[in-house]
């Protein structure tokens, strides 16, 4: 009896090891550890690992976010990535941060809106974006989608000339660095393109009240007309401690993308694992609650991977 139990345990261990060995080992590019992408990517990776029928084992990797993720994906250094839909559009067309179109990137799904969040200290004299003249402002990590959005927004008010920021000192900081610099009063304000709430901003408001600057009316309309991947959005009151009113702004969309040369079976397994476990994803990370099958392709600026498309056809989202 004892020998039987030992043999059964040994066989079970051998089976588990062989299953793990058989699974494709995927890396998902996310973002900085203080942003939304890193913990969300970890949650999605776990869902894929647990629910792809042993086909895919995925781990999340901290990166410089959208631009770096797309370059890593195109080179085959990672397999999946979280990126902004605007940055994906640049990669597809070979503009902005990309000298040529990236051929090895394709879409899986849209996940949630990423708000443009521009903030200063509540006691600051800065009341609008134009008041950033002469100030020290974090515009995002070098090569990030955040920094691309800063260029677009400041370009509309004459604070970016197509090559350089004009009239203020830009600081190219990650979310974590911007959070630290802002708390130490080394910068006067920051622009974050990220899901709301953002953990770095939550950390700041525990000790320093913030004023969020709005992007609305003509400025909002002009930006959206020029860059249609933006959409109107609200940072709702109560999102952060002390925020007692809605803040008008704009948003891009966070999307999950993949290597184009990923096999159809693998992409299908990834897509199915995610959409058949949405409740678990929502429980693992709040932004997972924004992902629905109905809106899976909203704002997607890349071609959809054939494996993902197979799943969408199977469930009737795409004919």
From TrEMBL:
Any one Pfam family match given in the protein's UniProt record, by short name: NMT1_3
Extent of the signal sequence: 1-22
Sorted UniProt keywords: Signal
Superkingdom, natural source: Bacteria
Coiled-coil ranges (or none): none
Name used for this protein in its record: TAXI family TRAP transporter solute-binding subunit
Organism the protein comes from: Pyramidobacter porci
